[in-house]
Amino acid sequence: MALPARYTGWQKLRTRVTAEAIVGGVTGTVAAPQELILGRYDRGRLRIAGRTTRLTMTASAQLRALLHPATTHPWPELLPPHPYGGGRTAYTRVTSEVVVELSVDLAVDGPRWRHPVWFVHV
């Protein structure tokens, strides 16, 4: 079988699926969220499961009306460092009331998604 003239090698394609998660925090402020910090329940505890890529202005405006700062929260004040490097991240904890739909790939490390996820809608 002859290869096309512009063949440059193999391509890596990630399978993406739809998932849901609870918004437990945001980077930026509640009035102007930049990324969502996501959680999922594991053995009865809300655990950090990952974060979204940067939100669009439209998504940020949509979420602003739904998010409220938390007075008590099960998560630490700073996010733990990523296992592959980087320091602790400051974020704003929010009440765990909002569930969002996401586009995720299948790579996970325990309860966490290995790669950033894409916000789809509330």
Topology:
Layout (H helix, E strand, L loop, with lengths): L15 E13 L4 E10 L2 E7 L5 H8 L13 E2 L9 E2 L1 E2 L5 E7 L2 E2 L2 E2 L4 E4 L1
Antiparallel strand pairs: 1-2, 1-6, 1-7, 2-3, 4-5, 7-10, 8-9
Number of helices: 1
Helix-strand string: EEEHEEEEEEE
- From the spread of the alpha carbons, the general shape counts as globular
Q: Percent helix among the residues?
A: under 10%
Low-confidence stretches: none
Q: What structural category arises from helix and sheet content?
A: mainly beta
Largest sheet: 6 strands, antiparallel
How much β-strand is present in the residues? 35-45%
Mean residue pLDDT: 88
What would you report as the Rg, rounded to the nearest angstrom? 17 Å
* Distance, first to last CA: 48 Å
Number of strands: 10
Q: Can you offer a commentary on this structure?
A:
The model has no long low-confidence stretch (mean pLDDT 88). By secondary structure, this protein is mostly beta strands. The protein is globular, with a radius of gyration of 17 Å. Strand 2 (33-42) and strand 3 (45-51) form a beta hairpin. Helices cover 7% and strands 42% of the residues. Strands 1, 2, 3, 6, 7 and 10 form a 6-stranded antiparallel sheet that branches. Strands 4-5 form a two-stranded antiparallel ribbon. The chain has a two-stranded antiparallel sheet with strand order 8-9. It contains 1 helix and 10 strands, in the order βββαβββββββ.
Key structural traits:
mainly beta; two-stranded antiparallel ribbon; six-stranded antiparallel beta sheet; 42% strand; 122 residues
